[in-house]
Amino acid sequence: MELRSDTSARLSFFMLTLSTVILECGGFSGPIVNSFPYGRKPAQVPLGGVRRQAAVRVQMSWRLPKGYRREDVAGGDMDPSFASILGNRLGIIASLVNNGSCVLDVGTDHGYLPIALMKSGKALKVIASDKNILPLDNARQSLERINDEALEQLELRLGDGLAVLSCGEVDTVTVSGVGGKVISEILFGAEGDAGEVSERRRVQDYGVRRVVLQPTGSISTLRKDLLMNGWEIVDEIINSEAGWIYITMVAEWRTNENQGENNISAERMLVGPHLLRRASNSAAEKILLREWIKHQLRHFKSRRDGMRMSSEDV
Ligand SMILES: C[S@@+](CC[C@H](N)C(=O)[O-])C[C@H]1O[C@@H](n2cnc3c(N)ncnc32)[C@H](O)[C@@H]1O
After folding, report:
1. Were 125 and a residue from 47, 102, 119, 158 both cysteine, which residue would form a disulfide, CB within 3.0 to 4.6 Å?
2. Cβ(137) to ligand 1 under 6 A?
């Protein structure tokens, strides 16, 4: 019971923080017509005969203010050539990979991101991995369909997370389309491994220095785990595609000095300072951020109300 009221107080605190942030965001407020929290079904978006999976969980149902079109809500420093090939969701990840990188794309499924990175010449080498055979077969089929010399440096590997990797093979890891907790486990090991921390290999132990992540949920958990493990979140971008909001974060390895939960404010965890900074400069990102925060508020409220009801039952 005590745990419940503790959690309920925390949720109220989160809601208050988010309400404050939403006031700071100001700007436009489009009417929310309909929404559902962290849906399970991936949206299927047809693109030039190719099936693109959009796996992000915050549905946006709002009308853009006059003067804005849906396509305008790219957000961030999107490379237009990637946007036209991959769409906004995967396009922003490709845009955030540095030129000349060697990349591991964990959970690649269709393999579109690795293919675009190789074909564009942005990456020197890409390993596309998946822990399941069928998704990796999807990637293989994509490669066979395209059948391009530029893809010779693209390797497919079957395996769980970083287990497919040898030390020093890549400098960048991308993960998208899975939740923040799964991403955290991929990068830093599973929960419950606490006793084996010293033996557990974390992403930095493989020589990786940059990660580009697009979680489908548990974003604040992922922020916290990155910071706690010595990574600095250097950018976060909010954008949208086909009515869904995506948050993409870039983190770079610094050091594990001066990091720790105590240094990290609740606001920083919940919303992310980069999203706030960007929203203050870009009307499009401001609109998206407001909608995302409103969604979070509804999510926390329904969790808190659910807890209150179940404690009344007892
Ligand atoms: C929804 S798909 C996302 C595909 C692609 N990354 C995208 O964003 O469109 C998620 C993929 O991640 C894979 N996956 C989940 N956990 C994984 C892990 N620990 N290691 C490797 N692959 C994983 C699943 O098999 C699935 O193919």
Report:
1. 102
2. no
Closest CA to 104 of 176, 189, 179: 176
**Cβ atoms within 10 Å, residue 111:** 26
Q: Ligand 1, atom 5: nearest CA belongs to which residue?
A: 108
Provide CB contacts within 8 A for 49, sequence distance 6+: none
Select from 53, 110, 178, 248 the residue to mutate for testing ligand 1; criterion: most ligand atoms less than 8 Å from CB. 178
- Tens-binned pLDDT, residue by residue, of the chain (314 aa): 555 667 677 667 667 666 666 555 544 333 322 222 222 233 332 222 233 444 444 544 444 444 444 444 555 678 888 888 888 889 999 999 999 999 999 999 999 999 999 999 999 999 999 999 999 999 999 999 888 888 988 999 999 999 999 999 999 999 999 999 999 999 999 765 555 554 668 999 999 999 999 999 889 899 999 988 999 999 999 988 877 888 999 999 987 555 555 566 776 678 888 888 888 888 888 888 888 888 888 877 877 777 777 766 54
